[in-house]
């Protein structure tokens, strides 16, 4: 089930460096929210707060609230449970060095999902959803490492979807892919948002306009402006947003 996420007065420090400055933002359920902004503005840092990927970074201090529905993800839930509800796909496809079947079922098996027949059904359904079933159905026992970059990224998306998360986080998921694979992953992100909340970091402005409903522009750790995507691109309210969108910096 798609749940909304939100952050309230979020501040994050790496040691003495103030990387996120009083960020408050809603990410509506069942929609695609895109984070855009120049390199180093804090997009990935914020994305990583949503499933506590920053927890292991020494000297990283988070203040404020991150909410999944009504649940405070830093206070009300353990990190393993949280990551079953808030999955993540990374910039570089990272299939595990195990079979395609075991890649897709990894999260389910970790959660103690026992029945082979149910796992088979979930593998077929999720690989079909990511458009990979016909390409791999006869080689489910082959290593996940045997796939092309675009196939591997779709496998990683299938692995994330197999546990039926409420939210899928995507950190520049197409930046290592060719244009055809990029198109497939973009179509997929839109389709995924019918059942899951999607939050994506992207440097590609066309991609943000193609797939996101809401767009948030960040600059130097600050959330400058957030609006429905078409509105943000056609009528930015802040000069910094306009300068970025028109290529004056970035
Ligand atoms: N583990 C870390 N330790 C210290 N500083 C960090 C760490 N990770 C990120 N930073 C700093 O925090 C700031 C925000 O980084 P972040 O990766 O979130 O930016 P970004 O907007 O995603 O950039 P890019 O578009 O280049 O990926 C940068 O100044 C970066 O150098």
Q: How are the secondary structure elements laid out?
A:
Blueprint: E1 5-14, E2 17-27, E3 32-36, H1 43-50, E4 60-68, E5 71-72, H2 79-85, E6 86-89, H3 100-110, H4 116-129, H5 133-136, H6 149-161, E7 167-171, H7 179-192, E8 197-201, H8 205-211, E9 214-219, E10 222-228, H9 229-234, H10 239-245
Parallel strand pairs: 3-8, 3-9, 6-7, 7-8
Antiparallel strand pairs: 1-2, 1-4, 4-5, 9-10
Helix pairs in contact: 3-4, 3-6, 4-6, 6-7
Short recap of the structure:
With 250 residues, the protein is an alpha/beta fold. Helices cover 36% and strands 26% of the residues. The protein has one domain (5-245): Rossmann fold, CATH 3.40.50.
Give a description of the structure:
- By secondary structure, the chain is of the alpha/beta class.
- The chain has one domain (5-245): Rossmann fold (3-Layer(aba) Sandwich), CATH 3.40.50.300.
- Helices cover 36% and strands 26% of the residues.
- It has 10 helices and 10 strands.
- The protein has helices spanning 43-50, 79-85, 100-110, 116-129, 133-136, 149-161, 179-192, 205-211, 229-234, 239-245; strands at residues 5-14, 17-27, 32-36, 60-68, 71-72, 86-89, 167-171, 197-201, 214-219, 222-228.
- The strands form 2 sheets. Strands 6-7-8-3-9-10 form a 6-stranded mixed β-sheet, with helices on both faces. A 4-stranded antiparallel β-sheet has the order 2-1-4-5, with helices on one face.
- Strand 1 (5-14) and strand 2 form a beta hairpin.
- The longest helix has 14 residues, at 116-129.
- It is globular, with a radius of gyration of 18 Å.
- The mean pLDDT is 95.
- The chain binds adenosine-5'-triphosphate (ATP).
